[in-house]
Protein backbone atom coordinates (compact mmCIF):
# COMPACT_ATOMS: atom_id res chain seq x y z
CA UNK A 1 0.00 0.00 0.00
CA UNK A 2 1.31 3.46 -0.85
CA UNK A 3 2.24 5.43 2.27
CA UNK A 4 -0.38 8.04 3.10
CA UNK A 5 2.16 10.88 3.09
CA UNK A 6 3.28 9.92 -0.43
CA UNK A 7 -0.34 10.19 -1.62
CA UNK A 8 -0.69 13.59 0.07
CA UNK A 9 2.57 14.84 -1.44
CA UNK A 10 1.19 13.93 -4.86
CA UNK A 11 -1.89 16.14 -4.22
CA UNK A 12 0.48 18.97 -3.24
CA UNK A 13 2.61 18.51 -6.37
CA UNK A 14 -0.51 18.53 -8.61
CA UNK A 15 -1.85 21.64 -6.85
CA UNK A 16 1.44 23.45 -7.42
CA UNK A 17 1.22 22.72 -11.12
CA UNK A 18 -2.39 23.89 -11.42
CA UNK A 19 -2.57 26.94 -9.15
CA UNK A 20 -0.91 30.29 -9.86
CA UNK A 21 2.09 31.13 -7.67
CA UNK A 22 0.53 34.27 -6.19
CA UNK A 23 -2.51 32.23 -5.08
CA UNK A 24 -0.34 29.44 -3.66
CA UNK A 25 1.51 32.08 -1.65
CA UNK A 26 -1.70 32.96 0.24
CA UNK A 27 -2.00 29.39 1.53
CA UNK A 28 1.70 29.22 2.37
CA UNK A 29 1.41 32.43 4.40
CA UNK A 30 -1.59 31.07 6.34
CA UNK A 31 0.24 27.81 7.15
CA UNK A 32 3.39 29.67 8.24
CA UNK A 33 1.38 32.00 10.50
CA UNK A 34 -0.57 29.14 12.03
CA UNK A 35 2.68 27.27 12.75
CA UNK A 36 4.24 30.41 14.24
CA UNK A 37 1.24 30.79 16.58
CA UNK A 38 2.53 27.74 18.50
CA UNK A 39 -0.78 25.89 18.17
CA UNK A 40 1.00 22.53 17.75
CA UNK A 41 2.54 22.91 21.21
CA UNK A 42 -0.87 23.47 22.80
CA UNK A 43 -2.74 20.40 21.60
CA UNK A 44 -4.02 17.96 24.23
CA UNK A 45 -0.91 15.83 24.84
CA UNK A 46 -0.22 12.14 25.42
CA UNK A 47 -0.95 11.33 29.06
CA UNK A 48 -3.81 13.83 29.37
CA UNK A 49 -7.38 12.78 30.11
CA UNK A 50 -9.54 13.09 26.98
CA UNK A 51 -12.76 15.09 27.31
CA UNK A 52 -15.95 13.06 27.11
CA UNK A 53 -18.34 13.80 24.27
CA UNK A 54 -21.69 12.95 22.75
CA UNK A 55 -22.07 14.08 19.14
CA UNK A 56 -24.49 13.26 16.34
CA UNK A 57 -23.47 10.99 13.48
CA UNK A 58 -24.41 11.48 9.81
CA UNK A 59 -27.81 9.89 10.46
CA UNK A 60 -28.58 12.05 13.49
CA UNK A 61 -27.89 9.35 16.10
CA UNK A 62 -26.09 10.45 19.28
CA UNK A 63 -22.71 8.74 19.68
CA UNK A 64 -21.12 8.81 23.14
CA UNK A 65 -17.42 8.42 23.81
CA UNK A 66 -18.16 6.60 27.10
CA UNK A 67 -20.10 3.88 25.24
CA UNK A 68 -17.27 3.35 22.76
CA UNK A 69 -14.50 3.35 25.38
CA UNK A 70 -16.42 0.69 27.32
CA UNK A 71 -15.71 -1.59 24.33
CA UNK A 72 -12.09 -0.75 23.51
CA UNK A 73 -9.57 1.96 22.66
CA UNK A 74 -10.84 4.70 20.37
CA UNK A 75 -9.15 6.31 17.36
CA UNK A 76 -10.40 9.87 16.76
CA UNK A 77 -9.68 11.58 13.43
CA UNK A 78 -10.39 15.30 13.49
CA UNK A 79 -10.81 16.51 9.89
CA UNK A 80 -11.47 19.89 8.27
CA UNK A 81 -14.29 19.00 5.90
CA UNK A 82 -15.27 16.93 2.91
CA UNK A 83 -13.98 19.81 0.72
CA UNK A 84 -10.39 19.02 1.75
CA UNK A 85 -8.73 16.44 -0.54
CA UNK A 86 -6.06 15.74 2.07
CA UNK A 87 -8.68 14.88 4.71
CA UNK A 88 -10.58 12.66 2.29
CA UNK A 89 -7.45 10.81 1.16
CA UNK A 90 -6.55 10.25 4.81
CA UNK A 91 -10.03 9.03 5.74
CA UNK A 92 -10.05 6.66 2.75
CA UNK A 93 -6.74 5.22 3.98
CA UNK A 94 -8.36 4.64 7.37
CA UNK A 95 -11.35 3.06 5.62
CA UNK A 96 -8.96 0.43 4.23
CA UNK A 97 -7.66 -0.34 7.73
CA UNK A 98 -11.00 -0.29 9.53
CA UNK A 99 -11.62 -4.05 9.34
CA UNK A 100 -8.25 -4.73 10.93
CA UNK A 101 -8.93 -2.08 13.58
CA UNK A 102 -12.29 -3.65 14.53
CA UNK A 103 -10.89 -7.21 14.53
CA UNK A 104 -8.36 -6.09 17.12
CA UNK A 105 -11.06 -4.60 19.36
CA UNK A 106 -10.52 -0.89 18.66
CA UNK A 107 -13.13 1.63 17.48
CA UNK A 108 -12.92 4.76 15.37
CA UNK A 109 -14.77 7.99 14.67
CA UNK A 110 -14.12 10.92 12.34
CA UNK A 111 -15.08 14.33 13.76
CA UNK A 112 -15.45 17.58 11.83
CA UNK A 113 -17.31 20.89 12.07
CA UNK A 114 -19.39 20.39 8.91
CA UNK A 115 -23.17 20.02 9.15
CA UNK A 116 -24.81 16.63 9.51
CA UNK A 117 -26.03 16.91 5.91
CA UNK A 118 -22.43 17.35 4.67
CA UNK A 119 -21.32 14.36 6.77
CA UNK A 120 -24.14 12.28 5.32
CA UNK A 121 -23.01 13.16 1.75
CA UNK A 122 -19.41 12.40 2.68
CA UNK A 123 -20.01 9.05 4.39
CA UNK A 124 -22.10 7.88 1.42
CA UNK A 125 -19.84 9.19 -1.33
CA UNK A 126 -16.66 7.74 0.18
CA UNK A 127 -18.19 4.57 1.69
CA UNK A 128 -16.90 5.34 5.18
CA UNK A 129 -17.66 2.46 7.57
CA UNK A 130 -16.98 4.40 10.79
CA UNK A 131 -19.22 7.11 12.30
CA UNK A 132 -18.72 10.65 10.97
CA UNK A 133 -19.65 13.01 13.80
CA UNK A 134 -20.57 16.69 13.63
CA UNK A 135 -18.79 18.99 16.10
CA UNK A 136 -20.78 22.26 15.92
CA UNK A 137 -18.54 25.36 15.99
CA UNK A 138 -15.54 23.07 16.76
CA UNK A 139 -16.57 22.94 20.45
CA UNK A 140 -15.00 19.52 21.07
CA UNK A 141 -11.95 20.22 18.88
CA UNK A 142 -11.37 23.29 21.04
CA UNK A 143 -11.12 21.07 24.15
CA UNK A 144 -8.37 19.17 22.30
CA UNK A 145 -6.56 22.47 21.59
CA UNK A 146 -7.00 22.18 17.83
CA UNK A 147 -9.06 25.20 16.81
CA UNK A 148 -8.04 28.27 14.81
CA UNK A 149 -9.88 30.89 12.78
CA UNK A 150 -9.19 31.19 9.05
CA UNK A 151 -7.61 34.64 8.58
CA UNK A 152 -9.54 37.28 6.63
CA UNK A 153 -7.11 37.31 3.68
CA UNK A 154 -7.49 33.54 3.21
CA UNK A 155 -11.30 33.57 3.27
CA UNK A 156 -11.51 35.25 -0.14
CA UNK A 157 -9.29 32.53 -1.58
CA UNK A 158 -11.56 29.78 -0.23
CA UNK A 159 -14.66 31.54 -1.52
CA UNK A 160 -13.02 32.00 -4.94
CA UNK A 161 -12.62 28.20 -5.22
CA UNK A 162 -16.22 27.73 -4.04
CA UNK A 163 -15.41 26.53 -0.53
CA UNK A 164 -17.87 28.47 1.61
CA UNK A 165 -16.85 27.30 5.09
CA UNK A 166 -19.62 29.16 6.99
CA UNK A 167 -22.22 27.51 4.74
CA UNK A 168 -20.63 24.05 5.01
CA UNK A 169 -20.31 24.31 8.79
CA UNK A 170 -23.66 26.00 9.36
CA UNK A 171 -22.16 28.86 11.39
CA UNK A 172 -20.36 32.11 10.64
CA UNK A 173 -17.07 32.01 12.56
CA UNK A 174 -14.68 30.45 9.98
CA UNK A 175 -13.29 28.23 12.76
CA UNK A 176 -11.58 25.00 11.72
CA UNK A 177 -9.74 22.24 13.58
CA UNK A 178 -6.18 21.22 12.84
CA UNK A 179 -6.39 17.80 11.22
CA UNK A 180 -5.45 15.56 14.16
CA UNK A 181 -5.12 11.90 15.05
CA UNK A 182 -5.80 10.78 18.61
CA UNK A 183 -5.89 7.37 20.25
CA UNK A 184 -7.75 7.23 23.56
CA UNK A 185 -7.28 4.21 25.86
CA UNK A 186 -10.27 2.72 27.70
CA UNK A 187 -9.40 4.74 30.83
CA UNK A 188 -9.73 7.97 28.73
CA UNK A 189 -5.96 8.55 28.72
CA UNK A 190 -4.52 9.97 25.50
CA UNK A 191 -1.94 7.45 24.22
CA UNK A 192 -1.33 8.95 20.75
CA UNK A 193 -1.68 12.60 19.72
CA UNK A 194 -0.50 14.21 16.50
CA UNK A 195 -1.62 17.37 14.74
CA UNK A 196 0.16 19.65 12.28
CA UNK A 197 -0.33 23.32 11.43
CA UNK A 198 0.50 22.29 7.86
CA UNK A 199 -2.65 20.49 6.68
CA UNK A 200 -0.57 18.66 4.04
CA UNK A 201 1.23 16.60 6.70
CA UNK A 202 -0.49 13.66 8.41
CA UNK A 203 0.75 10.74 10.53
CA UNK A 204 0.75 7.27 8.98
CA UNK A 205 -2.37 5.45 10.25
CA UNK A 206 -0.29 2.35 11.06
CA UNK A 207 1.57 4.28 13.78
CA UNK A 208 -1.67 5.23 15.53
CA UNK A 209 -3.07 1.71 15.02
CA UNK A 210 -0.05 0.09 16.65
CA UNK A 211 -0.64 2.31 19.70
CA UNK A 212 -4.35 1.42 19.78
CA UNK A 213 -3.62 -2.32 19.60
CA UNK A 214 -0.98 -2.04 22.33
CA UNK A 215 -3.61 -0.58 24.66
CA UNK A 216 -6.42 -3.03 23.94
CA UNK A 217 -7.39 -5.07 26.97
CA UNK A 218 -5.68 -2.74 29.43
Task: Describe the protein.
With 218 residues, this protein is of the alpha/beta class. It has a single domain (4-214), classed as Glutaredoxin (3-Layer(aba) Sandwich), CATH 3.40.30.10. It has helices at residues 4-18, 21-36, 65-69, 85-103, 116-126, 139-143, 152-160, 165-169, 205-214; strands spanning 54-56, 62-64, 74-78, 107-112, 132-134, 147-149, 175-177, 180-184, 190-195. Helix 1 runs antiparallel to helix 4 (85-103) and helix 4 packs parallel to helix 9.
Offer a quick outline of the entry.
The protein has nine helices and nine strands. It is α/β, with parallel strands linked by helices.
Secondary-structure topology with pairs:
Elements (H helix, E strand, L loop, with lengths): L3 H15 L2 H16 L17 E3 L5 E3 H5 L4 E5 L6 H19 L3 E6 L3 H11 L5 E3 L4 H5 L3 E3 L2 H9 L4 H5 L5 E3 L2 E5 L5 E6 L9 H10 L4
Helix pairs in contact: 1-4, 4-9
> Residue-averaged pLDDT, rounded?
92
> Which percent range fits the helix content?
40-55%
Unreliable stretches (pLDDT < 50, length at least 5) are none
Order of strands across the main sheet: 5-4-3-8-9
Q: Can you give keywords for this protein?
A:
five-stranded mixed sheet; 9 strands; 218 residues; two-stranded antiparallel sheet; Glutaredoxin; alpha/beta; single chain
